[in-house]
Predict the 3D structure of the following.
Amino acid sequence: NPSLSFSVARAGIADPRLHSALTALSIDARLRGAVLDLRKFSADWAGGTLKGSGSIPLAWLPVKLAMLPTGKQEPVAFSFSADGLKLQSIHGVPKTAQGTVSLDLKLSAARPTLDAVRGTLTIPRMDLSLSGFSFRESKPARVTLRDGVARVEQFAMEGPRTSIEAQGTANLHSPRALDVSLNAKSNAAVLASVLPSITAQGPVELHLSVKGTPENPRVTGFFETKNVSAGIPAPPVVAEDMNVRVNFSGSRATIARFDGTVNGGQVTATGGLGYAGGSLRDVNVQLKANGVY
């Protein structure tokens, strides 16, 4: 059996796709027969520190190396952590978002199939600033993977007039059955902060339970606003005292209440719509406006 050791010390990688350069890269690895032992991986990236270690059988690699044996089927075990990453230094994060996140990931599997994978993702720290609004975890987020089912055991964030909690399961096997819930309370000002040129104020609530599949979800719950005001400068639109409640039942959303003042006139709406097979259907919404200038 071949045996090969290699190491990298204090290296760096700069790539526009990384947005932030990978520095202080150190690797200590050994090829032990048909298994790659990553004894140490560490690097600095996005203002934080990355670390990892584990054993990866060559048979698990997507590309087979002709000069190396794949050997018998062996288990994989891998751990990875990221500490103190700055969100504003990560490619794809909105410019209005800043903050710090730390996470720990552990994966293991006896064979290269989804059912065999066991995993745990823990996020011990998540601090987020969104256009001046600050949020933090009230409980460390934890997601597990077992027997092809991903489970959000807990996820909870809190901030100014805001609380968000989510939990549930998603089966990764077809037809990808769902059983998740989301409960959120916030202020319209927080939601408007991510949208350019929009201002808003007032309480907003969303309570959802989702079952079924992504293509044909069965949703129960409601979305509600109370006396919300909002405005955009161009074209000039000012909405005041907007009271909205949309009820979700199965595959249908129904407007239970929609009334308020828009540019000095009264606006109401009734009706609803359905959702199935990945598209909207049976859309029947009536909007009435009186005295809007």
